[in-house]
């Protein structure tokens, strides 16, 4: 090969796209145009393009207020909407944000506003790994956050903080129905209200811990049901008000624990079918409901 | 024209059609630099909330882009009106009401991040008609009534959710009278301070849960003295420095109004709890009712079971 040929070959290898490192941070803007770079000076218009352009475990930052299209996440990434930006995704069909990363991925959604104009699901979490929602608003979906999985031998984690889910059919639906499936959810300082179904419906394989959170004005508040694989729900310092049924535990594999909660002004405060584990710790207010307790609770001395 | 239609169809599929080009306008914008002769889009915002509301579809959003003063507005449909936290969008009318809500019986309204300031003759928010109202991150200052929910009896339910909001320096903080209809009210992290009258004034059949709230420096913190069937549940709430911390009574011995206390602080009031006729105040046994000139006036507490 001639020297010119060798130089050409080396040059071609150097500019092969696969060898160009992806940026650790990309940007979107209502004034942007989708491109392969999505940098601060040339932001993209869609989250999809910015997610494609960013490196694994990078950040996608919304620069200004306005409407954005729905998108799918299939790798580790943080999608960030700063406090002074109102970035809204308001789809007419399907799912606003689909999260389907591999088992070890970490995905963060912060500050985004999701509203249904006919779409069925706000956030659909169908993959593995860890999904964190912070300061997110999810409004008007059939299922606000869908984390119902069919995977087996797989542990996924959902972390929700300072998030509002309202005015839909179900706020959060969570389960992992494989024989050894399991999905953990840690929910803090969040608010589920105005649903015609459940604020939270937890099923087989779900381990849900709620702290300082509220279910208000739903048909059913916090619901736990599993007759196949173990499912747990722990309520700590939660408020359950104005629901038809505040807290429901049913199914032979369900375990519910309620501590320092207020369950009041519901039609039925706590529904606990006999034979299940439903523990309280001498520190709850369950009063002022049309029917405070329908069923049987185990009162346990706190440690 | 065919090419334009095809182009728009492509954009619509990609979700890239600006909000105001869709047949349904999902989002409109206002700015102090806007004009009501504009189309209320991101690039051509309107000046007033009224114009932006008229342009947005039911269930849509109206977003304030810039800091400054905006005119009062009347809401007649489901909508979200929001100002991001770095935007100071203020409504300060010299008379009348800042935000009037006269929506349909099933309409749901969400208000986020606005500031209301006015002389004592005004109402900040008048929730006259509609199913539910969320008020979040509001600052309401110097209003005759900060948030008002007064209706004639109509068999329609009303729901009011207020969070991360301050109501200060006015006459009444929150005033609710549905003349017999049921209202469910949830207050979370709400501070109601230095109002000449009551922080929260309720009448019959109103159910209020207040969690992590503060009522301080008012004539009364919580007031429920008329009718029957009402309830106030206070959880981790501080009631301090009022002339009357809580005043409670009922017009009948049947279905009496009730107050329930859990982990509350009632202190530095002239009277901590003032019992009128047929009052019930229940306690979880974990409150601090101390340091008032009179801690319990005209009644005693009833124990609630710890479950």
> Most extensive chain contact?
A-B, 46 and 45 residues
> How many strand elements of chain A?
32
Mean pLDDT of chain A: 90
As residue ranges, the low-confidence spans of chain A are none
Beta-strand percentage range of chain B: over 45%
- What ranges of chain B have pLDDT less than 50 throughout 5 or more consecutive residues? 1-18
Report the total helices of chain B. Answer: 2
Distance between the termini of chain A: 80 Å
Q: Nearest-angstrom radius of gyration of chain A? A: 23 Å
Structural class call of chain B reads mainly beta
Proportion in helices of chain A: under 10%
| Shape field of chain B | elongated
Q: What structural class should be given to the helix and strand makeup of chain A?
A: mainly beta
Instruction: Going across the biggest sheet of chain A, name each strand in turn.
Output: 1-2-5-8-11-14-17-20-23-26-29-32
What's the pLDDT, averaged over the residues of chain B?
A: 90
**Largest pleated sheet of chain A:** 12 strands, parallel
Briefly, what is this?
With 303 residues, chain A is mainly β. Chain A has two helices and 32 strands. Chain A has a twelve-stranded parallel sheet with strand order 1-2-5-8-11-14-17-20-23-26-29-32, covered by helices on one side.
């Amino acid at each position: 090969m001639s020297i010119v040929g060798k130089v050409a070959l080396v040059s071609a290898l150097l500019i092969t796209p696969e060898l160009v490192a992806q940026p650790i941070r990309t940007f979107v803007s209502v004034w942007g145009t989708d491109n392969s770079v999505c940098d601060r000076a040339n932001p993209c218009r869609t989250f999809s393009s910015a997610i494609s352009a960013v490196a694994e475990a990078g950040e996608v930052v919304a620069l200004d207020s306005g409407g954005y299209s729905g998108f799918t996440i299939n790798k580790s990434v943080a999608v960030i909407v700063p406090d002074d930006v109102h970035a809204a995704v308001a789809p007419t069909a399907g799912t606003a944000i689909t999260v389907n990363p591999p088992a070890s991925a970490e995905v963060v959604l912060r500050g985004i506003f999701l509203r249904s104009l006919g779409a069925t699901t706000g956030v659909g979490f169908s993959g593995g790994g860890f999904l964190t929602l912070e300061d997110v608003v999810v409004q008007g979906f059939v299922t606000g956050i869908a984390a119902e999985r069919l995977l087996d031998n797989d542990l996924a984690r959902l972390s929700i903080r300072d998030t509002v889910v309202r005015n839909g059919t179900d706020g959060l639906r969570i389960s992992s129905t494989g024989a050894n499936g399991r999905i953990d959810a840690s929910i803090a300082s969040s608010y589920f209200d105005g649903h015609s179904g459940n604020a939270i419906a937890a099923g087989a394989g779900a381990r849900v811990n709620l702290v300082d959170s509220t279910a208000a004005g739903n048909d059913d508040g916090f619901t736990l049901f599993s007759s196949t694989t173990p499912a747990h729900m722990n309520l700590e310092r939660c408020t359950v008000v104005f629901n038809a049924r505040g807290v429901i535990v049913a199914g032979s594999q369900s375990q519910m624990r309620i501590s320092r909660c207020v369950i009041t002004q519901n039609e039925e405060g706590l529904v606990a079918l006999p034979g299940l584990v439903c523990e309280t710790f001498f520190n709850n207010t369950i009063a002022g409901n049309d029917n405070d307790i329908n069923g049987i609770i185990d009162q346990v001395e706190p440690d | 024209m065919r090419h334009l239609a095809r182009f728009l169809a492509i954009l619509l599929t990609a979700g890239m059609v600006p909000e105001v080009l869709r047949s349904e306008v999902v989002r409109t914008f206002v700015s102090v630099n806007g004009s009501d002769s504009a189309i209320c889009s991101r690039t051509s915002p309107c000046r007033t909330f009224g114009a932006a509301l008229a342009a947005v579809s039911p269930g849509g959003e109206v977003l304030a882009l810039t800091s400054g003063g905006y005119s009062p507005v009347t809401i007649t449909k489901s909508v979200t009106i929001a100002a991001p936290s770095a935007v100071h969008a203020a409504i300060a009318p010299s008379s009348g009401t800042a935000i009037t809500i006269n929506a349909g019986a099933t309409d749901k309204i969400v208000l986020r991040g606005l500031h209301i300031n006015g002389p004592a003759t005004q109402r900040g928010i008048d929730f006259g008609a509609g199913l539910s109202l969320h008020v979040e991150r509001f600052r309401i200052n110097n209003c005759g009534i900060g948030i008002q929910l007064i209706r004639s009896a109509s068999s329609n339910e009303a729901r009011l959710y207020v969070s991360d909001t301050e109501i200060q320096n006015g006459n009444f903080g929150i005033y609710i009278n549905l003349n017999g209809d049921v209202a469910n009210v949830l207050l979370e992290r709400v501070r109601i301070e230095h109002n000449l009258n009551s922080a929260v004034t309720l009448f019959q059949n109103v159910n209020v849960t207040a969690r992590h709230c503060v009522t301080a420096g008012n004539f009364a913190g919580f007031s429920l003295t008329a009718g029957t069937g009402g309830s106030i549940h206070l959880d981790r709430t501080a009631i301090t420095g009022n002339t009357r911390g809580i005043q409670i009574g009922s017009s009948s011995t049947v279905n009496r109004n009730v107050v329930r206390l859990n982990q509350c602080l009632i202190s530095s009031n002239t009277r901590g709890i003032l019992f009128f006729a047929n009052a019930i105040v229940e306690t979880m046994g974990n409150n601090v009712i101390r340091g008032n000139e009179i801690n319990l006036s005209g009644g005693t507490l009833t124990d609630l079971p710890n479950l």
